[in-house]
Amino acid sequence: MDEVFDFNSLVALCRETHTTMQQRAARSVNIELVVRNWLFGWYIVEYQQNGADRAEYGRSVLKKLSVALTENLGRGFSERSLEQYRKFYQTHLEISQTVSAKFKSPFALSLSEGAKIPQTLSRISLTVPELTQKFELSWSHYVSLLTVDHPEERRFYEIEAASNSWSVRELERQIGSSLYERLALSRNKEEVRTLSKKGLVLEKAADLIKDPLVLEFLELEERTSYSEDELEEAIIDKLEQFLLELGKGFLFEARQKRFTFDNDHFYVDLVFYNRLLRCYVLLDLKRDKLTHKDLGQMQMYVNHFDRHVKTEDEQPTIGIVLCHRKNDALVELTLPKNANIFASKYQLYLPSKEDLKKQLESITEELERDGARYSGS
């Protein structure tokens, strides 16, 4: 009899995979769950493309599969969940090479030959140790990532969540605050695509900068009457969230760090240390528009730390002036090109994702045009 892959085979394969994965002792229960869900997505896509009786079920296959699996396995297999499994597989198609390399047609199953199910599952199980190495996050993380439509943006968040051990809540906050777009817009257009391939790699001072810095977690109303002391106090009260917004490798050192020069006392609002770049990072808060005097003051702070605080094996100090409004032309005119001083806006509300995406799309289109001109030359 010719081998076929029909709906009953789909149900049986999901059921047996579920049972087998429950019994395995791999790295963690959650990774096993992720692998199981990816396999379910693979089965569903394969069935919808090649199932012998797929025309009989049409668009209702997920609904009927949900009913069948719930009867066999209990709760946890809603139609919505099955749709997530399918989308999860489709967003990680490159992983299918791990499985398909083992056998050409894993779903060549016969309706009348039930023995084919455990045989196929046995072959698939051989790939599970390799599959568990492909996933680093919990299923809840991947569910959050599925809400990100753009592949490069989604890949960036996946890399960052794994490398920084973000909780699901932290991941959702970074997605909601448009971290990818803000980082991309703070960089040269040639560096934008690198974010989706490697995540955020800290190699130079400019890699730290986000513009704007989003401080919605301070829970302050958007008004102009906040003093710098009030803003600083709010940051200290929510220091853990502020460090997350700053990015990788930040350690808090001091608040209102005093140093004396020529009998005058000066105070740096916030002092951090970045263990990845191995340098001090000074933060000065300005509640309104940035001025050239603010930049000059930060230059003095940076010079003091470079000459009197940092050790010889540490990297030059970075200064960031955090302001409510800024003029990029003023910053460029005031600071030399090699200055380790930056100005970044802050805002007390989540940014408009649509506006940021439009700006990023403009940069991406320009990058693609440059690439086309280069390849045609």
Automatic annotation (TrEMBL):
The record's listing under Gene3D superfamilies reads: 3.40.1350.10
Superkingdom, natural source: Bacteria
Q: Which residues cross the membrane?
A: none
Pfam annotation, one family = DUF1016_N
Q: Which molecular function term from Gene Ontology is one that the record holds?
A: nucleic acid binding
Identify the PANTHER family for this entry.
NUCLEASE YHCG-RELATED, UNCHARACTERIZED PROTEIN YHCG-RELATED
Protein name listed in UniProt: Nuclease YhcG
- State the species of origin: Pontiella sulfatireligans
The upper taxonomy is: Bacteria, Pseudomonadati, Kiritimatiellota, Kiritimatiellia, Kiritimatiellales
